Amino acid sequence: MKSIYKITFVAIAAVSLQSCIATKDYQKPQVWDNASFNTTDVLKDSAVQSVMPWRQVFTDSFLQQHIQTALDNNLDIRSAIENINQAQSYLAQGRAGYLPTFNVGVNYTHSVNSINTQFGRILGQRQRLDQFDITGSLGWEADIWGKITSKKAAAEATYLQTVAAHQAVKTQLVAMVASGYYNLLALDAQKQVALKTIENRSKSLETNKALKDAGRVTEVAVKQTEAQMLNAQALLLDIENNIKVQENSLSILQGMFPHTIERSSFDTMQLNINTEEGISIETLNNRPDVLAAELGFRNAFELTNVAKASFYPTLKLTASGGLQSVDFEKLFDPTSFFASIVAGIAQPILNGRQIKTQYEISLSNQEKAFVNYKQTVLNASKEISDALYAIDTNEKKLVLKQKEAEAYTTAVNYSQELLNNGLASYLEVLTATESELNAQLNIITTQYNLWNANIQLYKATGGGVE
């Protein structure tokens, strides 16, 4: 009975000693000092930090369907989900660290002694012995220095990191599908421009043939017009090829074999993204990749606590008991019961420098995780700054390109009229028509670049996560 009292006293003392925790409490690292997007003309400190759900940003019904299909079927998403499942299992294991271990074993032992041993010579003969036992063992380690608590916290950080990584994949996927879809619409618009150009140049070719017959132009003008039409036909082939390539890319993002992508038209598309209120530096907190990097640092921090706690003594309580008998018939007899309780404290002294090495490595990993977190924040701020400047640049550029196209269209009309009246050379018409085509294609490209810049800003501010 006294031994039981002693063991109970040791257990109570172990629980009391947990106030002597050697580990440190986690604090979020500060990497926001002097942070900015280098966009003082756009940034407003009063900006709202909420991010709209992707369905409210991308209102096109076809695009919504494609995004949802990608979120359901994309292979990267499915792989990220499996990472979450694995981390969840480790988390459950970490939470069970406070619980004791319990094992049960059933054993049968048959032994025959040697006659040539000291004991065998005393007996003078071989002795055969059978033994049966059912043994249960219970073990528990007191979390005196916070080692088990830190392991649990590290497992929680890893789990949350995989969740954040999954959200980061979703954010990237939404942006990639939206960007690809808008690019497909832009290619459709460029295809229509190419078809219209081929039609117009075909008419111009017939006109120049008539002018040649009338002696107004030479065969050179006819061939130049024909070359322009052939060039437009080749351009059409390139655009059609790019359309198929883009459709295939979107199919793969959806986790499907290449197929035709249903879509709306270029002229009807809009984006419900408002940047007039500005973007605050705190918007970076919305980004799942920033959160994942911070949780990676927390995991490394907690593992450093675990390594540090390994320098201190461990207190373990071990109990075993069961039934043991040399006669199977008496195995379940009350007299076959046995039990033992052991309480022990172990302090590492010499272990080949393993604990110190592990601690030094954990400190290095913690520093690497901090550097990765800071680099992630820097990259995130750059992406937002780049997107803001791209939006501003392409908005201004689109106005200029539209005016440029209008000017070239007027120039084509004037030069063609002058040519018909013998007041201009065909070289002027040729130059004007080629410039008009490029200007029309550039308008479409600039409009797509503006849409894509808004998509990238939405992604850079953590959009796409629901």
Automatic annotation (TrEMBL):
Keywords: Lipoprotein, Membrane, Palmitate, Signal, Transmembrane, Transmembrane beta strand
GO molecular function: efflux transmembrane transporter activity
A single cellular component GO annotation: plasma membrane
Localization (cell): Cell membrane
Membrane topology, from the record: Lipid-anchor
SUPFAM superfamilies the UniProt entry points to: Outer membrane efflux proteins (OEP)
Signal peptide: 1-21
One Pfam family per UniProt: OEP
Recorded family membership: Belongs to the outer membrane factor (OMF) (TC 1.B.17) family.
Protein name, UniProt field: Efflux transporter, outer membrane factor (OMF) lipoprotein, NodT family
